[in-house]
Amino acid sequence: MSEPLLAVRDLHAWYGEGHALHGVNLDVFRGETVTLLGRNGVGKTTTLRAIMGLVRKRTGNVTFNGTDLIGLPLHRVARQGIGFVPEERGIFATLTVDENLILPPVVAKGGMSVEEIFDLFPNLRERRNSPGTKLSGGEQQMLAIARILRTGVQMLLLDEPTEGLAPVIVQRIGELLATLKKRGMTILLVEQNFRFAARIADRFYLMEHGKVLEGFPVGELGAHTELLHEVLGV
Ligand code: ATP
């Protein structure tokens, strides 16, 4: 098998004295969609934040596309081609859709033009002059993803992209992620909506107590129903 695009080895992370990650191991291969599952507080968000370097107190190895991300300053991590969409979305609420797209966090080679973004997100084109505050939750989520796509990333880390969204919008986000996958995007996401995760993911990692308990492909969901029931209650 080829080298993983993202390899995480024995990742520990702390908030002050609070030891949140206890040695996370995971791989994401190019073009895959991988979902982190687990109950509240097990360290899913912290895993994404520690990969990006947003939790500074961490040890272990994080390799992206052959580059060690641990020790790189935050702005250099973003330039490696990996982008993070936080649960709170990270758009400029007082700026319009257009302005949010014109002012991406980083502009790199291979980033999508604003017109390409609007072709992918026609609803954002219709709302291009609306400020972030006037957008629905789904539109805000799409704008947050769109801003990261402007930067030319090869890999997206998404934290609960369907949180608080109506089923029809959840479906739209699922279609969008499927389109991005077809274009070769690699995706690691945290998701509480198990049905959504089961529809879009190639593989899962189940987390408990700041560690990965088990990893398995979507085809083996049936063999893991007891474990999922025990750990997630689904
Ligand atoms: P959730 O779905 O509730 O976000 P999670 O699996 O993503 O859960 P994390 O948010 O990564 O879990 O939290 C892991 C642990 O770290 C929890 O014990 C949490 O209380 C703690 N934690 C998270 N953020 C902070 C913070 N900013 N300061 C201190 N402790 C934190």
Automatic annotation (TrEMBL):
The entry's keywords: Amino-acid transport, ATP-binding, Nucleotide-binding, Transport
Example of a GO biological process term: L-amino acid transport
Organism: Mesorhizobium amorphae CCNWGS0123
GO molecular function, one term: ATP hydrolysis activity
Family label: Belongs to the ABC transporter superfamily.
Domain ABC transporter: 6-234
UniProt cross-references to InterPro entries, sorted A to Z: AAA+_ATPase (IPR003593), ABC_transporter-like_ATP-bd (IPR003439), ABC_transporter-like_CS (IPR017871), BCAA_Transport_ATP-bd_LivF (IPR052156), P-loop_NTPase (IPR027417)
Protein name per the record: ABC transporter-like protein
Pfam families per record: ABC_tran
